Each structure stands twice: as structure tokens, then as C-alpha cells.
């Protein structure tokens, strides 16, 4: 109990106590609701932080964790101040331990503690693994529409049935432990389950065999079920056709006493304790304890929770933990070892010991999830056996070693034993090391083969002698380092699963990882979409028409959707197809029995809503032709045909954007064939008439269903065709606001995402500093600001103190040009990206707070203090994929206006092909640095003629460095790239086979684009060294025809979109692995590599002869770099390259081929007309041959002359172009090429202009 200030006392351990604690015995199990601490009175001793452990028996302790799984309690800062912590969830326990973690820097450990709570009463039953309780009904069966079952349990095993009941018609309910997880099987009259025998379970929790209490609550009403385990609830609908659960005779608790009943499956009985077991208000344990006739006891069920306490030790460090134990005298049978372990780590040393026969050693270790036993006889000779699969699954595993005669046997769990043959009998020395080796020991004594063991061990036996770990803890047996005793500190870091969007979680002892393969998302928690938000965004990164996956809500809950992006028109149209593309003919329908057609789109309703909401305009064409088929009743206007909008609401207009008007397009355009009607069909003509219209009121789109009712009369029929949904524009890209006053701001609702949050936007300003956005909580906050003219800062606090990430630009950011910012914080890391600057990120500590708790409004362009506001423009602000409407809020806010001034602040395409629009005082200019094109608007192609043996290689520097913030003192840096490539080029050639383009990596991956022997295009993807490459052939015909061909390849994860000229196709790779560390890109001949497959290598040796034009790989233009930077170390040129016009070369080659083909045909025709066998035949043949030869010679002369003229003109053009572009491009290559391997998304953000 805490003492008054004038009192004295307090606990302080001995200075020699290595791991001190203060233990409190409450005399009985109590419900603890709060704890409080003070330092030692009138001293410099106090505890600044501590762990709180609890136990029912004084053995087998468990650490109490607060919200966010934080295990550290904040202590005192002086001797007499009281710090109280109210526990978010009470503890029902008898014993508490306060374990100091750090203490006063001017004194030592000093502690006074007080515990708050109340008495706790429970009804307990103990099951020994062979016993159970049967609750028998008064009638043959019990049928219930509502059930409530609650209990608490603690288990010594990972398997066991807690509850089971079943009925003859197929109903059943089973609650069981399986592999340490709690599984609920529930079925209501589902005949499919009876026939298939399959039982699906809903699972919760893990590591439930920890010998500690867990609470369970099952609530069922009809088929709706709430399943709760330790405050984690899962809601689901049970399988089956009924609403009631029908159970025959009885419910069993603790096991299934009568296996073999219909539908019963064999499981192990529960071994452990239950308390407060209630079934629909009935106290089962109380009835059993009072021996009521409704309860029948099977086996030995006792009513107190007892049993052996299995003391475990936790090895905390993967580098320095170890336990050294003396070896007892060997038994007559020889050397033997036994232990149990559990871990998440795939590698770790379990046991190492030197043998009496020098230099022999015995090593037992986990390697790649398997158990390995190594007997080392000499420095070079070892014998080894292995067993098991994924022994790092977090479950307890038992392993034993024993020697009999001239062999040593290893046994894992219940698997078959593995044996090593010996040359002589093994004799142990005096010491064995468990879990790791001391740093002071040399390699001869003990060494960790990979890493030390990080996990839990218990039940250690050496030569059949059990090891008392409590004696080890007290220093009376062996030595140890970095161990915790009488506690297993294993945690399931994948529960709950923080991997978003279906990412798969895996874990090690101290962290978890997310596998985002196949999800369409990337990042540490699969938070970021790998797809663009719209077709407009794809256009801005240089893509052409084709099928794409878009993700309108970015990192939001909606997944990506596949659409067709039509970029051939002035507007970029997003096209969503449905299941009925052909015209449908309708006859015989009435209003009572109408024709009904439902339309299923290639996207979900929520995805369609997101697309429509984010688009400027949407429309859908309804082609409707009729003959004696009316849309509306002539007398009262009742609709005879209508359609349903996306919400399922009835709509009766057939064109235009005025939903309240019951009309067709002809009425809106005032051109109906009979002006007495609003639709042509309502004139009820016997001839075919048309009421085709465009639906453009986007809040009603797309059309979900069409109903036609007036085609039953003689000669009556209708034909309709509903077109795809077509939308254009991206409202978020150009949604902007201008801030003119430092005290002005826009406010939005509080940010709600507490675990993961990403913020992205563009800004331009001339001010030296300003707050972009800020959201505050009671203690937590998040802020993004321009802290200096060249620095953007991202700061936040989730309860562990402020975290600051800063990105510093080598050039000022207040240059009145657009700059892009993306800040993200999740449970794994925080990151900040500005333009193409190196990514700054900081890993989150393993036991840090997770939830960001905010309460105030979100301020944009300012802060809550109304100081240091932002002056300038912001646009395209997105938070967790949802765009914030700056434009609309700005209309209502003083000091802020909607939109941004300037030429580069709207969606008009001033600069093409990835050109960047740069504001000037008198207009704008286009920066074509990252474009494969040149010219004032980045429209002029850059073309080069290749001769035999020529090639251009572009070398990428090291992958851009991921820089950790200077404030970081721990954590590792990783780079997560997305599986995405964009390749575009044009070419002219007549050569086969030919190598067009090769992309190679340092990890033996490659992408190759070749022309095969028959001239067809082939695309080779080799993403795994050990797998066969993926090969696609989009064109069965030859492209080596001397014509100009345009090739575009766009890859997103597994999806590859290929466009050759106007033909688009989609392919699927066998893997979505990214290209790791791209090394080089080569155009033309490739030599000196054994990585390429045979066909690719053959094409590479042949090289390329012809013309390349406008070559682009992501944001790199290698051909342009070769022309403008011939001396650069990044560009290697072999052979003679001359700037030329591919279009002119294609035209000349085409003419030459035409002349060459036509004349021999004429000669053949002449030869075919000759039928006489005399001297005239010889003369005719000679004449034809000579004439053909002259034609071929003339064609070749003409081709060479035009090619020479093209080279001469190109040479002059090259000098002029080089003078115009060399300065900008040379500076970019030699000063900013560290960004050349940035991900495409990052590198192209600034092109959203």
C-alpha cells in the first residue's frame, strides 16, 4: 500500500539482484482494475518504467499488455508522486509482479505499489483429458432459435473439444481448440454438409495453450452469430437452411464421450480448466457440483483448478541469449537429451555440446524451419540428419536425443525417428549450451551456426534428469544471459492481421511481414495500390489506349477494377463493359409478365459508384428500336417499359440528363416524328422507329436492369442494346485551392484511420514556410509542413513521443512550380516522399503504440493555432485514397479561393508525352527531360538508324538510396518496389531474327523483346532464375516488313498489356515478382551474357538493323540520352548511330519493296503467256531477267540515295536539336541520375499538371 508523505519505507532490491521484482499476494483470486506506484520515500530511488505480470498460482506468469499491446507501464519521475494506471481490461488473478525496466538515474530501484479491485467468485471444473460433463435435455431433442453460451477456460494442450452437440437432421455445434486456436463449427440443417462431410470453422485467437484464462462468448439469433474471444468479436452467418439449432438428447462439455454417433468426428478431449460455464442461463458447473440429475459426469471431473505447472524460460535475444547447464552423470543407456520448444524464427540454435572425444561436438538447431542434428567428428567431417516441417509455427514441439550402442537417435513429436551411425560410443563433457553460446567462448567451445534461439523452452532433461529452471533463476544451477524465467513471452504478431487488402501475414519473434503478392497493393502493410486512380492518370504517364486496372479509391477498401481506357479522342474515356454487348430482340412481353434483363458489369456496385463520383461526366447509350411497342401508356402516361438505376430505383426517362422528365431524346431535341408524343415509339407505328438516347445524369448510372412490357400485340416487337458505361475526367487531379492569407485554412472532419494513414498532394508556393495540414488529438497529432524553403517535414505522435521525418531538396521548393508530397504512417513504418528525392522512412519499434487518436478537425493550409499558415496552391489532396474537395470548401472560406492561377494549373494538355509544364513570368515552357520526345510541346520524335552490329546500352546507377531520417537510431532500411514496367518504342526493319530491346537486372532477371525467325513479335519475361520464362506472341504475322510499327507494353503485377499498332491484348504472368535492381537497358545487339535463353541469345547475337524511334522505359529515354550524352558513363554506344526519320525510311522501304515485287510478277505473267518452244522463249526470258535486274538495281539505288539524304538531313537536325536540349538533359543525367531507378509512380508524379 502507498504510504503517506510523512511515512517511510518502500521496496528496494539488493544491488546484486540482476533481475529484481516486487511480488504481491492478494490471498485469493481478485478482479484487479488499477495499479499505482510511488518511489521510495525520502530518497532518490524510483522506477521510471515497469512490466506487470500476473499468475493464479505464483508460477507460469503472463505479462499484462495495455491497449495496442504495449507492455511497458510508465512509472514515476520522483520519489513521492503517485502514478496510477486504470487497466483497460481487468485482471482476475491472485499474484502480481512489478518488474522494473528502468529507474532513477541519480539513485536506484525504489518502489511503493497499491492495487485496486474487488472480490471475484467463480465456478471451476477441471478436466483431465479423458473426462467430460453431459447436460441432458428433458425431452428427446432441444430446438432453439436463440443461444447464448459463455465460459472461461485455460488449457495445457493445443487440442481439445470444449463443447459439442448434434442432431439427427444434420445440425451440430462444436467448440474446440485446434493447433492453439479456438474453432467454432456451427450448422443449421445444411444437407450439403451431411453429404460432403466437410466442416467449415470460424477461428479466433492463437497460442491459447498458455495455461492462462481466456473468455468465450457465443451469441446466436437464427443464423446470425457473434463469436467473441478475449474482446475480439467476429460476426458471421451460419451455414444451413434453417433458423433453429436442433440438438438431440444432450450437450457435452470437455469432450465427446461417445464417438461414432452420426456426424461425430474424432477429436481429443479438453485438458484444462473451465469456469463460469453457462448455457442459455444455466450454470452447468454449479449443477454438476451439486450433482443435479440434468448433469452426467464422465471420467474424473474435479471442481478446483490444479495440475502441474510447466515452468518455461524465454530466450529474449537472437544474438546473446544462452543457458549453460552442467551435465549429470550419464545413465547406463548412454547420453540422452529432451526438451520442448516453441518459436516463430526459422533459424536458431537449440543445443550445443562438446563431447569427451575431442574435437567431436553435437549440435541441434532449427534451420529453415526444419530440425537438424549434426555430429561433428573432425573439423572437416560431419554427419547430419533432419526432420520436421515448419517447426517455427509457434506451437510446442518435443524433441529428444538418445544414444543406444553405436547410434544416436533424434525424435520430433510423434514423427519417425532419425538416426546417425557412430564409430564409437558418445561420452559428454561437463557442460551443455541451450539456445546460444556465450560471447566469451571461443569457436572450439561453442559457436552459433546461424543465430541464437529466440523463443521458449521447458521440460529440459539431461541424462533423464529434469532441470529445475527456478534453481537456474536463483543462481543455484548453471549460468544464463538474456532469459526470462517462469514465463513464455511468445506473441502472435499476426493477430490481429495488420496486412491490408488480403495480404498474407508471416512473422518472426520480434516482427511481422506482409506478403502482398496478387493483392494489387504494395508497401509494408499492403496499403498502397499499385494501380493508378483513373485513365486520366495513365494518360499523364504516357500510356495509350488499352485495358488497364484502375483503383479509384487508392488505398481505400475497394479493390482495383479492369476498364478500357480510350485515349484516342480529345477526352480520355473510361469504359466499363457489361455482360450483354449484343442487341436483344423482345417479343411477347406484357406489363404483368415483362421482359427483364440484368446487367452485370466488370466491377462491383461500390467500385462503379467510386468511378462515377470521381469522374467529371458519365454517360451510357441506350439504343432502342420498336415497332408497335410503346414506352408509355397513351392514356394515363403509365410507363410500359423502364429501367433501374444503380440503386435499383425505377427510371422512366430515355435520354439526356433531366431525370424528372418522362421523355425520350427526340422530345428534348424537338424532332419526334409525331409531336403529340414525347417518344417516337409512343406513336405506335407499324414501321420501325428509333428512340435511341444518351443517359448522362451520372448519379443514376450505370443502368442495372431494363424492363420491357409492350411487345405482346400482333406485329409488336422491340430491339434494344445498352452500351457500356463511359466516363471521362478525374475530379481529384485538378481539384485545387489557393491560400492568400496566413491565418486562413480549410477544415475537414477528423481523420478516422488510426492504424494506417497516407496523405498525398501537390503544392506550389513562393513562401519560405507554411503548414500544409494538421490534425490534433489530446496528445497525439499529425502534421505536414514546409519547414524551410527546401525542406518538407512530416511529424506525428501516437503516444511514444514525437516522430519527425524531413526531406531536404538540393533546390528550393518555393519556386512557384508544382511539387508532389506523399506521407504515410502505418504500424510498421513511417515514410515521406517529395518529388523524386530519396525516400525517407523510419521503422516503428516492435512494442510501440499503434493507434493514432485524433479528436479535432483536420486543418488544411493552416493549423489550429492559426499561425504559420500556407501561402500558395494545393491540389489533388488525398487521404487514404479519398480525395478532399478543396475547390468546394474554398468557395465558402475567406482568404481562400477555388482553383489555382497559371497555365499549368488545369487539365489541358499543354505538354505531351510526359513533358512537364513549367510556369514562366510570361507564359510557360515544356520540360521534355523525362520524355522520349523533344520540341516545344514534347511532340517531336527522336529517331536513330542502326547499322549491323550497332547497339545502345543505358546503365542504371545503384537503386536509389532509401535514406533513414537522422533521428532514427534503430531499425533497418528496406526498399519495396512495385511490379510495374512501361515500355514504348517504334521501329522499322526487314531483318529476322532481331533483338529489339533487353532489360537486365543484377539478380539474373531479364525482359527481352525480339522478332522471331518468322518476323513475329515475342516478349520474354524471366523473373525467376529457376523457372521457365513467360513468352508472349501478340502478333502472328511478321513485323519485319519495312513499315513503321509502334509497340507499348504496360505491366502491373501479373498483368501485362501489350499494344502493337492499334491492336491491344492482355496477358498474365506466372508471377508478380518485380525486377530487382535493374542494371541496364540495351537496344540492338547483345553479347557476352549467359543469362538469356537460347532463342533470345540468338536474336541478341543478330542485333538489329533498321530504325528506332521514341524509346521510353518508365521515365527513362535511352535513345535520347545516347544522342545528347555520347560521352556519359551511363550510355554505351557500339557501331554507327545516325539520327534519322523512321517514317521516311519506312516510306522508302515500302516503295522499294513494291517496285521489287510488282515487276517480277509482270515478268512471270509474260512468261506464262508464252507457249511456243523456240528462240522467242529464250529471248523473252533474257529480256525479263534483264528488266527485273534493272528494276531491283533502280530500287536499291533509290533506297540508298534517300537513306543518305535522310542521314544528311538528320545530322543537321541533330546539331540543332542538341544545342536546344543538351544543357537541360546533360545536367539531369549527371546530377539527378540517382533518381533514374525510382519507381515509375514516384518519378512521374510531377507530370500531373
UniProtKB/TrEMBL annotation:
InterPro entries, per the entry: ConA-like_dom_sf, EGF, FA58C, Fibrinogen-like_C, Fibrinogen_a/b/g_C_dom, Galactose-bd-like_sf, Laminin_G, Neurexin-related_CASP
Positions with biased composition (Basic and acidic residues): 1155-1170
Topology term for the membrane: Single-pass type I membrane protein
Cell location: Membrane
Record keywords, A-Z: Disulfide bond, EGF-like domain, Membrane, Repeat, Signal, Transmembrane, Transmembrane helix
CDD domains, A to Z: EGF_CA, FA58C, LamG
Laminin G domain sequence ranges: 124-305, 312-488, 735-900, 950-1142
Pfam families (UniProt xref): EGF, F5_F8_type_C, Laminin_G_2
Disulphide linkage map: 873-900
Transmembrane segments: 1176-1201
Record-level GO cellular component terms: membrane
Domain (Fibrinogen C-terminal): residue spans on this chain: 526-578
Keyword Cell wall biogenesis/degradation: no
Domain annotation EGF-like: ranges: 490-527, 901-939
Location of region: Disordered: 1151-1170
Family label: Belongs to the neurexin family.
Protein name: Contactin-associated protein-like 5
Amino acid at each position: 500500500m502507498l504510504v503517506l508523505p510523512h511515512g517511510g519505507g518502500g521496496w528496494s532490491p539488493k544491488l546484486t539482484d540482476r533481475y529484481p521484482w516486487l511480488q504481491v499476494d492478494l490471498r485469493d483470486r481478485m478482479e484487479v482494475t488499477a495499479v499505482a506506484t510511488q518511489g521510495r520515500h525520502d530518497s532518490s530511488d524510483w522506477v521510471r518504467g515497469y512490466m506487470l505480470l500476473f499468475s493464479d498460482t505464483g508460477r507460469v506468469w503472463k505479462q499484462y499488455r495495455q491497449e495496442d499491446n504495449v507492455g511497458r507501464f510508465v512509472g514515476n519521475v520522483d520519489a513521492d508522486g503517485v502514478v496510477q494506471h486504470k487497466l483497460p481490461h481487468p485482471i482476475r488473478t491472485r499474484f502480481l509482479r512489478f518488474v522494473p525496466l528502468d529507474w532513477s538515474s541519480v539513485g536506484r530501484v525504489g518502489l511503493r505499489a497499491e492495487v485496486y479491485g474487488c472480490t471475484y467468485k467463480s465456478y471451476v471444473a477441471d478436466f483431465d483429458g479423458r473426462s467430460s460433463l453431459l447436460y441432458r435435455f428433458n425431452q428427446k431433442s432441444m430446438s432453439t432459435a436463440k443461444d447464448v453460451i459463455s465460459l472461461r477456460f485455460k488449457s495445457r494442450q493445443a487440442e481439445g473439444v470444449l463443447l459439442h452437440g448434434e442432431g439427427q437432421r444434420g445440425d451440430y455445434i462444436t467448440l474446440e481448440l485446434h493447433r492453439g486456436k479456438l474453432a467454432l463449427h456451427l450448422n443449421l440443417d445444411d444437407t450439403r454438409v451431411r453429404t460432403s462431410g466437410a466442416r467449415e470453422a470460424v477461428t479466433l485467437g492463437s497460442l491459447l495453450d498458455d495455461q492462462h484464462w481466456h473468455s468465450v462468448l457465443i451469441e446466436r439469433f437464427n443464423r446470425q452469430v457473434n463469436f467473441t474471444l478475449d474482446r475480439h468479436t467476429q460476426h458471421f452467418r451460419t451455414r444451413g437452411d434453417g433458423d433453429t439449432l436442433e440438438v438431440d438428447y444432450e450437450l457435452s462439455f470437455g469432450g465427446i464421450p461417445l464417438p461414432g454417433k452420426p456426424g461425430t468426428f474424432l477429436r481429443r478431449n479438453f485438458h484444462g480448466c473451465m469456469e463460469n460455464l453457462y448455457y442459455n442461463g444455466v450454470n452447468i458447473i454449479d449443477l454438476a457440483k451439486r450433482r443435479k440429475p440434468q448433469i452426467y459426469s464422465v471420467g474424473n471431473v474435479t471442481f478446483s483448478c490444479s495440475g502441474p505447472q510447466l515452468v518455461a524460460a524465454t530466450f529474449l535475444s537472437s544474438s546473446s541469449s544462452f543457458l549453460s547447464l552442467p551435465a549429470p552423470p550419464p545413465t547406463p543407456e548412454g547420453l540422452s537429451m529432451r526438451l520442448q520448444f516453441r518459436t516463430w524464427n526459422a533459424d536458431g540454435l537449440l543445443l550445443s555440446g562438446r563431447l569427451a572425444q575431442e574435437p567431436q561436438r553435437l549440435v541441434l538447431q532449427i534451420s529453415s524451419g526444419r530440425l537438424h542434428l549434426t555430429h561433428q567428428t573432425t573439423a572437416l567431417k560431419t554427419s547430419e540428419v533432419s526432420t520436421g516441417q515448419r517447426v517455427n509455427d509457434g506451437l510446442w514441439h518435443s524433441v529428444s536425443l538418445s544414444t543406444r550402442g553405436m547410434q544416436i537417435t533424434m525424435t520430433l513429436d510423434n514423427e519417425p525417428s532419425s538416426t546417425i551411425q557412430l564409430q564409437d560410443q558418445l561420452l559428454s563433457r561437463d557442460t551443455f549450451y541451450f539456445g546460444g553460446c556465450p560471447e566469451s567462448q571461443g569457436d572450439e567451445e561453442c559457436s552459433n551456426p546461424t543465430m541464437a534461439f529466440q523463443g521458449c523452452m521447458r521440460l529440459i532433461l539431461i541424462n533423464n534428469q529434469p532441470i529445475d529452471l527456478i534453481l537456474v533463476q536463483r543462481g543455484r544451477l548453471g549460468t544464463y544471459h538474456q532469459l526470462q524465467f517462469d514465463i513464455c513471452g511468445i506473441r502472435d504478431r499476426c493477430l490481429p492481421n495488420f496486412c491490408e487488402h488480403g495480404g498474407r501475414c508471416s512473422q518472426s519473434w520480434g516482427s511481422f511481414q506482409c506478403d502482398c503478392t496478387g493483392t494489387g497493393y504494395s508497401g509494408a502493410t499492403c496499403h498502397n495500390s499499385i494501380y493508378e486512380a483513373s485513365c486520366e492518370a495513365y494518360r499523364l504517364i504516357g500510356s495509350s489506349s488499352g485495358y488497364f486496372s484502375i483503383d479509384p479509391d487508392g488505398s481505400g477498401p475497394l479493390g482495383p477494377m479492369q476498364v478500357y481506357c480510350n485515349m484516342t479522342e480529345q477526352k480520355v474515356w473510361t469504359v466499363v463493359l457489361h455482360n450483354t454487348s449484343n442487341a436483344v430482340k423482345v417479343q411477347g412481353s406484357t406489363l404483368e409478365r415483362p421482359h427483364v434483363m440484368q446487367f452485370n458489369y466488370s466491377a462491383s456496385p461500390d467500385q462503379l459508384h467510386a468511378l462515377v463520383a470521381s469522374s467529371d461526366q458519365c454517360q451510357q447509350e441506350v439504343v432502342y428500336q420498336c415497332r408497335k411497342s410503346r414506352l408509355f401508356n397513351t392514356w394515363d402516361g403509365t410507363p410500359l417499359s423502364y429501367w433501374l438505376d444503380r440503386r435499383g430505383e425505377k427510371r422512366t426517362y430515355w435520354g439526356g440528363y433531366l431525370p424528372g422528365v418522362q421523355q425520350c431524346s427526340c422530345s428534348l431535341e424537338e424532332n419526334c416524328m409525331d409531336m403529340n408524343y414525347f417518344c417516337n415509339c409512343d406513336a405506335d407505328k407499324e414501321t420501325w422507329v428509333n428512340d435511341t438516347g444518351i443517359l448522362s445524369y451520372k448519379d443514376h448510372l450505370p443502368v442495372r436492369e431494363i424492363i420491357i412490357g409492350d411487345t405482346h400485340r400482333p406485329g409488336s416487337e422491340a430491339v434494344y442494346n445498352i452500351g457500356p458505361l463511359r466516363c471521362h475526367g478525374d475530379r481529384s487531379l485538378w481539384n485545387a485551392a489557393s491560400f492568400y492569407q496566413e491565418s486562413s485554412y480549410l477544415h475537414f472532419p477528423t481523420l478516422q484511420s488510426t492504424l494506417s494513414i497516407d496523405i498525398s498532394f501537390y503544392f506550389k508556393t513562393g513562401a519560405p514556410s507554411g503548414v500544409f495540414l494538421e490534425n490534433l488529438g489530446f496528445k497525439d497529432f499529425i502534421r505536414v509542413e514546409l519547414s524551410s524553403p527546401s525542406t518538407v517535414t512530416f511529424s506525428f505522435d501516437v503516444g511514444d513521443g514525437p516522430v519527425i521525418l524531413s526531406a531536404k531538396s538540393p533546390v528550393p521548393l518555393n519556386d512557384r512550380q508544382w511539387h508532389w508530397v506523399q506521407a504515410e504512417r502505418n504500424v510498421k513504418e513511417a515514410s515521406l516522399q517529395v518529388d523524386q528525392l530519396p525516400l525517407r522512412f523510419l521503422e516503428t519499434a516492435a512494442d510501440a503504440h499503434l493507434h493514432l487518436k485524433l479528436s479535432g478537425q483536420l486543418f488544411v493550409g493552416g493549423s489550429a493555432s492559426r499561425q504559420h499558415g500556407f501561402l500558395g496552391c494545393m491540389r489533388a489532396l488525398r487521404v487514404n485514397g479519398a480525395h478532399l474537395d478543396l475547390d468546394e470548401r474554398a468557395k465558402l472560406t475567406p482568404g481562400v479561393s477555388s482553383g489555382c492561377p497559371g497555365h499549368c494549373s488545369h487539365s489541358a494538355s499543354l505538354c505531351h508525352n510526359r513533358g512537364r509544364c513549367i510556369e514562366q513570368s510570361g507564359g510557360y515552357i515544356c520540360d521534355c527531360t523525362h520524355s522520349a520526345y523533344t520540341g516545344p510541346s514534347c511532340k517531336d520524335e527522336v529517331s536513330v538508324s542502326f547499322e549491323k552490329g550497332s547497339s545502345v546500352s543505358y546503365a542504371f546507377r545503384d537503386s536509389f538510396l532509401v535514406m533513414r531520417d537522422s533521428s532514427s537510431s534503430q531499425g533497418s532500411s528496406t526498399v519495396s518496389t512495385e511490379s510495374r514496367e512501361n515500355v514504348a518504342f517504334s521501329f522499322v526493319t526487314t531483318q529476322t531474327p532481331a533483338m529489339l530491346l533487353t532489360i537486365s537486372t543484377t539478380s539474373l532477371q531479364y525482359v527481352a523483346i525480339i522478332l522471331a525467325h518468322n518476323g513475329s513479335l515475342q516478349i520474354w519475361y524471366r523473373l525467376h532464375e529457376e523457372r521457365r520464362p513467360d513468352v508472349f506472341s501478340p502478333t502472328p504475322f511478321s513485323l519485319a516488313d519495312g513499315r513503321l510499327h509502334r509497340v507499348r507494353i504496360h505491366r502491373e503485377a501479373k498483368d501485362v498489356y501489350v499494344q502493337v499498332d492499334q491492336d491491344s491484348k492482355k496477358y498474365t504472368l506466372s508471377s508478380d515478382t518485380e525486377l530487382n535492381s535493374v542494371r541496364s537497358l540495351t537496344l540492338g545487339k547483345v553479347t557476352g551474357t549467359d543469362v538469356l535463353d537460347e532463342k533470345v541469345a540468338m536474336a541478341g547475337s543478330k542485333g538489329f538493323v533498321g530504325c528506332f524511334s521514341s524509346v521510353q522505359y518508365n521515365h527513362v529515354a535511352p535513345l535520347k540520352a545516347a544522342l545528347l550524352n555520347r560521352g556519359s558513363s551511363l550510355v554505351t554506344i557500339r557501331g554507327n548511330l545516325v539520327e534519322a526519320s523512321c517514317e521516311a525510311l519506312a516510306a522508302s522501304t515500302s516503295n522499294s519493296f513494291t517496285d521489287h515485287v510488282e515487276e517480277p510478277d509482270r515478268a512471270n505473267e509474260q512468261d506464262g503467256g508464252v507457249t511456243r518452244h523456240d528462240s522467242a522463249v529464250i529471248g523473252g526470258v533474257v529480256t525479263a531477267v534483264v528488266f527485273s535486274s534493272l528494276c531491283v538495281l533502280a530500287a536499291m539505288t533509290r533506297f540508298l540515295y534517300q537513306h543518305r539524304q535522310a542521314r544528311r538531313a538528320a545530322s543537321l537536325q541533330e546539331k540543332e536539336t542538341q544545342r536546344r536540349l543538351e544543357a537541360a538533359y546533360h545536367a539531369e543525367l549527371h546530377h539527378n541520375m540517382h533518381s533514374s531507378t525510382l519507381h515509375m509512380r514516384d518519378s512521374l508524379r510531377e507530370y500531373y499538371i
